[in-house]
From TrEMBL:
Residues 10-237 form the ABC transporter domain. Keywords: ATP-binding, Nucleotide-binding, Transport. GO terms for cellular component: plasma membrane. GO terms for molecular function: ATP binding; ATP hydrolysis activity; transmembrane transporter activity. InterPro entries: AAA+_ATPase, ABC_transporter-like_ATP-bd, ABC_transporter-like_CS, ABC_transpr_LolD-like, MacB-like_ATP-bd, P-loop_NTPase, Sigma_54_int_dom_ATP-bd_1. It comes from Jannaschia pohangensis. Pfam families: ABC_tran (PF00005). Signal peptide: none annotated. This is Putative ABC transport system ATP-binding protein.
Length: 237
């Protein structure tokens, strides 16, 4: 459900970004907004800049100019350390490659963001109990969660641990970069059911990236990269 009292979970205006050393290659977004509680699918071909855009929204990279507001707070003007703390509190991220710590346990992986986010840690309460409640809801067996290290899990199990890590402590914005790409169609539908249910329970807004248009009907709205962003490429040599 969309909360209209606080209009935007995410607002980008006149954003311009260049990768270091690639001045002629840039990504521009004139305006993009997501309402609180919305579930938005971001579609785009490989190389269209989806992951780059997510890195800007998460504050991992900073644009050369423009405004990026999460829950009404401007991220672009923040010093890098403040931006890192803000990201840990406000944004749960499911990375394309999951980025789990291979030699840490599944539970310790899930608890990791809470180390840098005191408000989120307080919301989670007892971290271990919260982590296991999430993984139960995401369909991970307790014996899987008892694995001493995350690298012993299957890809699908790692994916669920990565989602639990993003959701723990109910951050206001969940960013997921192609989290269903390793799943067959039946598992994808089931995974989205679980993800949506957990986002609703946490009151989190969801922005999910995919190149799979068939997922669009499941979302409140789908947006194509080419409709919100312009890529400027270097001239061919
Ligand atoms: N670290 C980097 N340094 C320089 N250029 C980069 C870097 N990361 C990505 N790019 C460039 O940015 C462009 C967009 O890449 P990006 O990964 O954002 O696309 P994408 O839409 O997420 O692709 P995919 O669906 O294949 O993951 C590519 O041309 C790539 O070469």
């Amino acid at each position: 459900m969309i909360d209209t009292d606080t209009p935007f979970a995410l607002a980008l205006d006149q954003v311009e970004f260049h990768w270091a050393g690639r001045d002629a290659f840039g990504l521009r977004v004139s305006g993009f907004r997501i309402g609180r509680g919305e579930r938005v699918l971001l579609l785009g071909e490989s190389g269209s800049g989806k992951s780059t855009l997510l890195s800007l929204i998460c504050g991992i990279n900073a644009p050369a100019r423009g405004s990026i507001r999460v829950d009404g707070t401007e991220m672009v003007s923040m010093p890098a350390a403040a931006r890192d703390r803000f990201r840990a509190e406000k944004i749960g991220i499911v990375f394309q490659q999951f980025n789990l710590l291979p030699y840490a346990s599944p539970v310790d992986n899930i608890l990791l963001p809470l180390c840098f986010a005191p408000d989120r840690r307080a919301r989670a309460g007892d971290g271990r109990t919260a982590a296991l409640a999430l993984t139960d809801a995401l369909g991970l067996a307790r014996h899987t969660m008892a694995s001493p290290t995350a690298d012993r899990l299957s890809v699908g199990q790692q994916q669920r641990v990565a989602v639990a890590r993003a959701l723990i402590g109910a951050p206001s914005l969940i960013i997921a970069d192609e989290p269903t790409s390793a799943l067959d169609a039946g598992s994808q539908a089931n995974f989205l059911d679980l993800l949506f249910a957990q986002c609703s329970a946490a009151g989190s807004t969801l922005l999910m990236v995919s190149h799979d248009e068939r997922l669009a009907p499941r979302f409140d709205r789908s947006v194509r990269m080419e409709d919100i962003a312009t890529l400027t490429r270097e001239a061919a040599a």
